[in-house]
Amino acid sequence: MGAEELTTNNRMELMAAIMALRALTRPCRVSLWTDSEYLRRGITEWIHGWIKRGWKTASRQPVKNAELWRALHEEAQRHAIEWHWVKGHSGHPGNERADALANEAIDEMLARA
Known about the structure:
Layout: H1 9-22, E1 29-34, H2 37-52, H3 66-76, E2 80-85, H4 93-112
Parallel strand pairs: 1-2
Protein name: ribonuclease H
Cofactor: Mg(2+)
Pfam families: RNase_H (PF00075)
């Protein structure tokens, strides 16, 4: 669990997935659930084009958060991952727990500031 100042929700969604995959000590079959379409579509759809275009978007702009996308892609290569989307704030127990942990991390960071 952690928090970071001056970040975005998209960066933290990417970091959560990266850290979850890094926690696995051997190659695994993984079902990864996220409420972020940015994360799910980025890793399952968009990343292939970004790599082909040298980390540029279809409009030839640099990919935002490219360093995190690269790290996630590298971590994902070790595993057989099924990426799932769940609607946020809809009562899904795992998503509610993730939100609670994220809020705890923010509270702890603010208390230290």
